[in-house]
């Protein structure tokens, strides 16, 4: 009996050992996968960079204000910029960090050279400049230009319409479907419209991330303050354009996310910053019986009276010329570009900008518009000038 019991115990111990080893292997595999997917080293680097830059800017701002007092009391003969940089060095910041600091002698504003604040402060210099080394996996063969900076992130836009083959399928529950926008008018090579993908989106409810909602901030503020949702066809089309999972192949290593095109707000903010003498205003509000806030945006040229859903020469400079950052004059690929915003015109209309700078709208099934994807770079990104109008991501 004792021999039998001992054999049983040995058998049970062997089974326990095998199970324990299997559990350890499963847990080790899970840890490895988690490390691979989450990239903690890279994430830590990004977090450290952002923290250091934040501390650097805070210290520089304090020193810039302190210089004014010391200068008035004749305690320093240094310029504001020299004073700030010497102060930063004394606080232990590296020569490279201090060398990247920009200080405006008159206003006292500080920024890191080539960072988001610097880009936002100098739209005439940066907006429209080419980025020489942004890479992604779409195989679309487009270049990338700086469109905008909100002082936290720099946004790039494709310098041309992407070919139809590069337009992604829609997603459902985070996974790609077999559905893709319809091929557009055959008079053009790169146009598409939205009929095929509408079934995969519920409308405004499909846009859940606050950073993506903020790209159409006025519209989502309207929805939230009025406890409304938008299930209209135009909003389903916009949800596709704002679907970061669908457009992820345009997200390079230095990007936070990519989407199918700029929103009306981003596009107009960029234009207004670069061309202050030709500003455009926009709103989300009912305008008489024609335009409804739930449908989307209305706009007007600054200094004019009436908000509508179209401006004939919205993106035309005061000298009547065009800027190819905003207007693509060549119509071989598309007549116009889609904006990732709905129009106050009606339940089926999205915003668009055409080849003569017209800001208006079209039905979701219009076949003459193409896509120019928008990329949001990581907040830690800094740009380095290569030559006039050309920058590389450092």
What about the largest sheet?
A: 7 strands, mixed
| Low-confidence blocks of residues | 31-48
Rg value: 27 Å
Structural class: alpha+beta
Strand content: 15-25%
Order of strands across the widest beta sheet? Answer: 10-17-5-4-3-19-18
First and last CA, distance: 76 Å
Q: How much helix is in the residues? A: 25-40%
Number of strands: 19
Task: Please tell me the total number of domains.
Answer: 2
Q: How confident overall, as mean pLDDT? A: 90
Order of helices and strands: HHHHEEHHEEEEEEEHHHEHEEEEEEEEE
Based on Cα principal axes, name the global outline: globular
Total count of helical runs of at least 4 residues: 10
